[in-house]
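Ops channel
N.P.: pipeline sanity check, posting one input/output pair.
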């Protein structure tokens, strides 16, 4: 807690310098939508960023600009078909694989420089979505979306290193939209009221509730038929391999269907090594039964695919589980309309 207090004072001073205009936030002549959180991870930023990009790509040329966390490169990179996770980071690689050329994917540690280079490019976007940029205050977003998870909302957390908050919970005031993510799909009315009382959105803030839904399992090597998630039964044994901040909800979904689920969890954005894959293969071989598979996330697959041959015979049994956002209370149309209207009014 003493270290958290010191950290909190430093972050508070930094935010005040921006609030007072001592440190400058740059405004750009196009819609800039910031998606981020107050914590160090685990709120589902990537699927929410993908949702916003998917909403906008039919309206205007849209770019997603990320820091590219975990990449081995520096500076501005415009992703193309040959870009891998080592060059642009796992989450941008995931989005590039998903959207192809329909959305511009770029990375830069400096969002200010990154937006400037996007605007100077031949393929100039009409709107920019900033992935995980709530703390990047050198850019003044035209719309800010703050995410927080149902199981650990920022109101119940503490500053680093005592908790997981990057900055004081009072900084929620900078958000235009707050989304409570990873909610149970069967939330009761009383749960919504408790959440609203806990988050206490300001009158100018819209509050939304989302959960994550999972698609059919797809072979990581791109071959074979998809394996419907609903087809998993008690006879299946699943080895779940993840390098994400919070795999608990994913594990719980698999446990509802498969007979046995064994998890190998690595830290968020983990760079898989040959030894890691040897451990995975060994664990896979030790599993009982003929109906055994390996399941990983889209984000992890972006880092695992270049090493796929090291899985040996387990390669043909390794599947990727797609995930997307689902709005509760029938709120999706309202959210999409807010995003569309904002972009059209600020283009």
């Amino acid at each position: 807690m003493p270290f958290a207090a010191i950290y909190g004072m430093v972050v508070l001073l930094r935010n005040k310098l921006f609030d007072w205009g001592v440190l400058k936030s740059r405004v750009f002549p196009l819609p800039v939508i910031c998606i981020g959180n107050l914590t160090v991870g685990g709120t589902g930023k990537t699927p929410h960023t993908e949702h916003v990009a998917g909403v906008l790509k039919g309206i205007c040329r849209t770019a997603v600009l990320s820091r590219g966390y975990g990449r081995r490169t520096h500076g501005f990179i415009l992703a193309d078909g040959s870009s891998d996770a080592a060059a642009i980071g796992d989450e941008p690689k995931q989005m590039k694989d998903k959207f192809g050329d329909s959305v511009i994917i770029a990375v830069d540690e400096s969002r200010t420089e990154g937006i400037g280079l996007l605007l100077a490019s031949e393929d100039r976007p009409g709107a920019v979505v900033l992935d995980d940029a709530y703390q990047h205050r050198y850019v003044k977003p035209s719309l800010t979306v703050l995410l927080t998870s149902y199981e650990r909302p920022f109101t119940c957390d503490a500053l680093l290193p005592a908790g997981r908050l990057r900055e004081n919970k009072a900084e929620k005031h900078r958000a235009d939209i707050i989304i409570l993510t990873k909610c149970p799909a069967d939330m009761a009315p009383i749960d919504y009221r408790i959440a609203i009382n806990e988050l206490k959105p300001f009158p100018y803030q819209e509050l939304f509730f989302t959960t994550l839904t999972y698609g059919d399992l797809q072979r990581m090597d791109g071959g074979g038929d998809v394996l419907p998630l609903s087809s998993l039964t008690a006879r299946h044994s699943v080895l779940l391999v993840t390098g994400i901040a919070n795999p608990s909800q994913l594990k719980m979904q698999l446990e509802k269907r498969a007979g046995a689920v064994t998890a190998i969890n690595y830290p968020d954005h983990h760079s898989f090594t040959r030894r890691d894959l040897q451990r995975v293969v060994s664990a896979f071989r030790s599993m009982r039964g003929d109906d055994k598979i390996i399941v990983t996330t889209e984000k992890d697959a972006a880092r695992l695919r270049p090493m796929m041959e090291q899985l040996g015979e387990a390669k043909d049994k390794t599947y990727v589980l797609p995930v997307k956002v689902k709005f509760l209370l029938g709120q999706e149309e309202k959210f999409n309309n807010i995003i569309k209207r904002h972009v059209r009014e600020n283009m």
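N.P.: looks fine end to end. The chain is about 30% helix and 20% strand.
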